[in-house]
């Protein structure tokens, strides 16, 4: 890339200008770029305003094939405003105009990819914040924000609240909160009232007001689930009140899988701040046993001491081998901690529980076992993967299945003791009996060179 850039620089301005003009004659996007590059600051603002008006009345529609180009055009217009406008208030006014055109923009395109929404969230919000930082009339700015939020049918205007603390001091944010409260109090629609509460919640988080955050979460959500308890607890912890944070986290059920990881992580931070080492150790051990990983191991050792590494690894191995249900993450943990023999025992012990649909979890285990000469364990995992493909009749994956069967053909010649497992030829015969009508699979398998790796 650098070499090409240097070569283009050496061509000189005249040659590059001629090339751009020639390209512009054949490409609308290139023509647009040339117009942008050649425009003065005033012309860029004029083009921005003119294009926004055009979107409001043109009736053009950009389908999924054209939406990326439409997005690039919008990005270009926004960048022109950021580069050419020097007066902060004028910049804010232009960005307000852009956000108020959200309905015309979204109705003009297929944004199933979320690309246009992302432009509002990132580029437009960022430029608005830059201009708002330099805007001295904060009262006017507050009023304009409230006015924008009165109609947010496409859910992109509230992005402007995500960074209010970057362009307003805390006292101004509190005044904005009062204005939003007034809007909520006079709102007749319950849904819209909850929207105002959520806006206030966003601001409460930015100024670290945990009590206000809790109040708004209660009003906007009604009943508080585990997610709400976690969020409120996090807010109190960040506000310097670990005891109240702990009380909120204790409301979360231990069986809530979706919040468990985040809850335990926050609990460890709380116990650490409170100096409760017993609870810290208990929670860290519990987290590690719930999901054994190298990261979890290091977190545990940071609490109980690096000298306990071998004890933890040995204890984890014993617990893994004595459990009743197979876990691919536990098998991987055994491998990652250098316990290949224990991993082999574990895989052979729970071979009947393998879920071949979990391709990404199982394949690394099969490959490791094969590479380390533990062929029977590798065979059991490859069988699970192959069984899954044929059971589902997933023709797009038949080439993987053929590769697995070829590996099984090869591995069978390396295995002398099949233990309690079905020998390869018998397994293969039963496979053909069950899936013999999958002619494309068997036809391609027969035509491939056996032993080839995937």
Could you write a compact summary of the structure shown?
With 454 residues, this protein is mostly helical.
Write the layout of secondary structure elements.
Blueprint (H helix, E strand, L loop, with lengths): L1 H10 L1 H12 L3 H11 L2 H18 L8 H18 L3 H13 L1 H6 L7 H19 L4 H12 L20 H16 L4 H18 L2 H12 L4 H13 L3 H8 L7 H18 L2 H14 L3 H11 L4 H14 L5 H9 L3 H10 L9 H13 L3 H18 L5 H15 L11 H12 L3 H9 L7
Helix pairs in contact: 2-3, 3-5, 4-5, 5-8, 6-8, 9-10, 10-11, 11-12, 12-13, 13-14, 13-15, 14-15, 15-16, 16-17, 19-20, 19-21, 20-22, 21-22, 22-23, 23-25
Describe it.
This protein is mainly α and 454 residues long. Among the domains are: 223-290, Alpha Horseshoe (Serine Threonine Protein Phosphatase 5, Tetratricopeptide repeat), CATH 1.25.40; 354-454. It has 25 helices and no strands. Helix 11 packs antiparallel against helix 12 (210-221) and helix 14 packs antiparallel against helix 15 (257-274). The two termini are 34 Å apart.
Main beta sheet strand tally, sense and closure: none
Distance between the termini: 34 Å
The number of distinct helices, counting runs of at least 4 residues, comes to: 25
Helix content: over 70%
E-strand count: 0
Query: N-to-C SSE series?
Result: HHHHHHHHHHHHHHHHHHHHHHHHH
Shape: extended
How much of the sequence lies in strands comes to under 5%
Radius of gyration: 31 Å
Mean pLDDT: 92
Low-confidence stretches: 449-454
Q: Structural class, from secondary structure content?
A: mainly alpha
């Amino acid at each position: 890339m650098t070499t090409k850039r240097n070569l283009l620089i050496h061509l000189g301005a005249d040659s590059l200008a001629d090339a751009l003009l020639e390209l512009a004659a054949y490409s609308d996007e290139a023509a647009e770029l040339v117009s942008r590059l050649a425009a003065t600051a005033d012309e860029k603002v004029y083009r921005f305003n003119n294009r926004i008006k055009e979107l409001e009345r043109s009736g053009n529609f950009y389908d999924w094939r054209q939406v990326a180009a439409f997005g690039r055009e919008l990005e270009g217009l926004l960048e022109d405003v950021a580069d050419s406008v020097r007066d902060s208030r004028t910049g804010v006014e232009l960005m307000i105009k852009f956000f108020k055109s959200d309905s015309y923009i979204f109705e003009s395109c297929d944004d199933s990819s979320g690309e246009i929404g992302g432009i509002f969230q990132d580029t437009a919000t960022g430029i608005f914040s830059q201009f708002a930082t330099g805007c001295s009339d904060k009262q006017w700015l507050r009023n304009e924000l409230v006015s924008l939020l009165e109609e947010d049918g496409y859910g992109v205007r509230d992005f402007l609240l995500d960074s209010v603390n970057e362009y307003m001091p805390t006292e101004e944010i509190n005044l904005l909160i009062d204005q939003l409260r007034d809007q909520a109090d006079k709102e007749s629609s319950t849904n819209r009232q909850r929207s105002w509460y959520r806006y206030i919640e966003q601001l409460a988080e930015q100024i670290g007001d945990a009590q206000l955050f809790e109040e708004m979460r209660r009003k906007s959500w009604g009943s508080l689930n585990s997610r709400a308890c976690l969020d409120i607890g996090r807010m109190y912890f960040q506000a310097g009140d670990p005891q109240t944070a702990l009380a909120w986290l204790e409301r979360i059920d231990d069986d809530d899988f979706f919040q468990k990881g985040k809850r335990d992580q926050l609990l460890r931070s709380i116990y650490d701040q409170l100096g409760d080492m017993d609870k810290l150790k208990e929670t860290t051990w519990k987290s590690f046993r719930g999901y054994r990983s190298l990261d979890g191991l290091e977190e545990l050792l940071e609490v109980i001491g690096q000298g306990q590494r071998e004890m933890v690894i040995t204890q984890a191995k014993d617990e893994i081998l004595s459990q009743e249900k197979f876990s691919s993450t536990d098998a991987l943990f055994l491998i990652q901690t250098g316990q290949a023999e224990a991993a082999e025992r574990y895989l052979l012990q729970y071979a009947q529980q393998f879920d071949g649909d979990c391709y990404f979890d199982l394949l690394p285990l099969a490959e490791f076992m094969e590479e380390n000469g533990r062929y029977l364990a590798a065979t059991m995992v490859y069988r699970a993967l192959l069984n899954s493909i044929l059971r589902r009749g997933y023709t797009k994956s038949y080439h993987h299945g053929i590769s697995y069967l070829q590996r099984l053909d090869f591995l069978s010649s390396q295995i002398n003791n099949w233990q309690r497992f079905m020998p390869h030829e018998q397994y293969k015969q039963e496979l053909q009996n069950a899936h013999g009508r999958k002619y494309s699979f068997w036809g391609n398998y027969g035509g491939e060179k056996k032993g080839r790796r995937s």
